[in-house]
Every structure is written in structure tokens, then in C-alpha cells.
Write a structure and sequence with these properties.
- 2 copies of one chain form a homodimer.
- With 191 residues, chain A is of the alpha/beta class.
- The first copy, chain A, has 5 helices and 12 strands.
- Chain A has a single domain, classed as 3-Layer(aba) Sandwich (Rossmann fold), CATH 3.40.50.
- Chain A has an 8-stranded mixed β-sheet, with helices on both faces.
- At the A-B interface, strand 4, helix 2, helix 3 and strand 6 of A face strand 4, helix 2, helix 3 and strand 6 of B.
- Strand 4 of chain A pairs antiparallel with strand 6 of chain B, so a sheet runs across the interface.
């Protein structure tokens, strides 16, 4: 999506350790108009899939998920993060390593919010090594619902999580795929 | 707002220690259609205030903030929570005690996202003792911006944070004010 790529070039900052900071429009400060246009692109891709629920993870996935859900006219569920592996009953959970924070989280969704008849679209702001996406997909599988695919704002193509999930059969649709970033801030996108 | 009150009666659960669980539509699972209608009510109240930014706090305030911001056609900023009081420079921060989690957090907003010329509307899903609202208002004051008021989904009137802030001159607009809750689940709203 050209508009998002332009915004990344204009407002994104490349930090050490392959961090791409997009706090000015996608996380921390949220450009609502852009997020709604991004949601529309995801809708165009998945509108024939009879999506009944959008699943994301707190906190930075929530905004993009909500503004995508408006196009699908469906509800959003966000997985909560817990640092303990002792999660209570009545939930689906899956563990997820955060490379950014270098810790392991459990992603948790109460069982009552996902049923076998749901067609679930996963939405997230970033896809890098794919840890969060794998955990969310795992939660959908546990519930018996159908995962129709994933809509991602920014995929870091050079960290290969997206390609791995595509090989495993998940329909991963990323609005911008960063192929490389250099320390002096040059960003190249996948065609 | 009658629609929200009905939803609270229908889907909310009263838990021990004055907890009102609304995970089925406002937190964890998000009723996007309802949230957008709630945002419209907040817009009707504050539309003459030339709102330039909406400020909320992660994670559960983000959805309501985004769907309110669509009416105002403005951006959203969400404060992040940090457990350490050692926050880096370049940020506005204010401490905030969580009665739910019985811990102290720092709420943090990078300075670059709030300027003296901003007219800021604070949005949050819950208002109880008012700790988060006070901290967000403090952050707006630190930035030199103008706080035009606060739009709250559910206020627990019996915990008095909202009334205290109103006495201090903040225009607090709550869509539903719970006056009392009993252990057997009876909820009464303020007229």
C-alpha cells in the first residue's frame, strides 16, 4: 500500500537492532484516517471470507483491528498478555516470545469469545519473526474456529516470520513489507 | 446513554470488590458498532471545542478512543504504562495507582505528540477513583495544551473520582454512571 509506505519513509525511524519506530502514526500516536484506509485495503482482500470476528493482541494491534472491523461490521477480540504461565481455566492460551522485550508472554483469550462457527481474521500492526501471529493462529485452532488469514500493517520481510507462515498455508496479507533497513535510515520495500 | 446502560445490564457481570466486568463488549471483546455510537455521543457533547487530539491510556481505552476520534477527525495518542519510575527524558509522565491491580504505574507520553496549541479530549473506558484521569489530565497540563474535558464510557459514581474532578473544574462526560452495584448483580444508574 503506497500510502503506508510513504508514511513509513516520511515518519518512521530506523533504530538499532532492526527496530522500526512508527510511534508517530501507528503506535503511541494513531493516525485514524490512515488506519481506516488501511482497514479498507484489508477488507478488499478478505471481504468474501465471511469474517465473523477479528482477533488481535493488546495493545498496539487494537487500533488497526478496530478500524478494520468497521469495514467488516464485526466485533474485535484482543488477546491479553500475561507474564505467568499459570493461566486460569476457561481460556485459550498460547506462549509467544517477544524479541523486542526479550521475554515470554502467554496470550490469552476467554473461551466464550471464540466458537467453532467463527471465521476469524487475525490483525496486527507488526509481523517480524511471527511469534505473535503463530500464537494467535494457535488460539484460533484451539477454539475450532476457522482462521481465514491475517492482515498485517508492516511486515519485516527480512525476519521471515511471514514467509514461514505463508509456507504453512496461512493467507498473510501485509500492507507494507520492509525488505531491508540500514542503520542510516534507508528503507527498501518488497515489490 | 440508554443503549450502553442496557448493554451493561444485559452483558455486564458484577464481581466481588466492586468489579464490573464488561469484557463481552468493551474490553477483551469489542462491540465496534456500539463503540462508534458511543463515540458519536461524545462528539455531540464536545464538537464545539475544536478538539485536535484525543488522549487515552493503553490498553482498554484505545478502542473507544479510536472510534470517538473518527467523529472528530483527529488523531489519538495513548499513554503507555511503565512499572518503573525511572522514565527516560523527552516524555511527559504522571504516576497513577491502579486499585484493580494494586500497583503504581507511570503513564508516559512522548513530548513530541502534545503541543501548547492542542485542544485535548481525554477518553477512557472506566472512571472509578479517577487515578488514570488525574494522571492524563496532569500530562495535558505539563504539555501546556488545553484539556477540553473527558469522555468516559462507564463511571462508577459510588467511587467518586468523577465528582471530584468535576469539582476541580474538569468537564467530565460519562455515558453511563453506575450509582450502585450489589453482590447479587443489581445495577442502578444515576439519572
Amino acid at each position: 500500500m503506497k500510502l503506508l509506505e510513504q508514511k513509513i519513509i516520511e515518519k518512521g525511524k530506523v533504530l538499532p537492532n532492526n527496530v522500526l519506530k512508527v510511534g508517530a502514526f501507528l503506535n503511541n500516536q494513531l493516525d485514524i484516517n490512515l488506519l481506516s484506509k488501511m482497514g479498507k485495503e484489508v477488507y478488499k482482500k478478505f471481504k468474501h471470507k465471511k469474517v465473523t470476528k477479528i482477533l488481535t493482541v493488546e495493545a498496539s494491534g487494537i487500533a488497526f483491528a478496530c478500524l478494520t472491523a468497521q469495514w467488516f461490521k464485526c466485533d474485535v477480540i484482543f488477546a491479553k498478555k500475561s507474564k505467568t504461565s499459570n493461566v486460569e481455566g476457561g481460556v485459550f492460551s498460547s506462549s509467544c516470545f517477544s524479541y523486542t522485550h526479550q521475554n515470554e508472554n502467554q496470550l490469552i483469550v476467554p473461551k466464550e469469545y471464540l466458537t467453532k462457527t467463527d471465521n476469524v481474521l487475525i490483525i496486527d500492526d507488526f509481523l517480524a519473526h511471527g511469534e505473535a501471529l503463530k500464537a494467535l493462529n494457535d488460539i484460533v485452532n484451539q477454539s475450532g474456529a476457522t482462521c481465514v488469514g491475517a492482515g498485517i500493517a508492516i511486515e519485516k520481510g527480512f525476519q521471515h516470520g511471514g514467509d514461514e507462515m505463508r509456507k504453512n498455508g496461512l493467507d498473510v496479507f501485509s500492507l507494507a513489507i520492509v525488505e531491508s533497513m540500514t542503520d542510516d535510515g534507508k528503507i527498501t520495500f518488497r515489490n
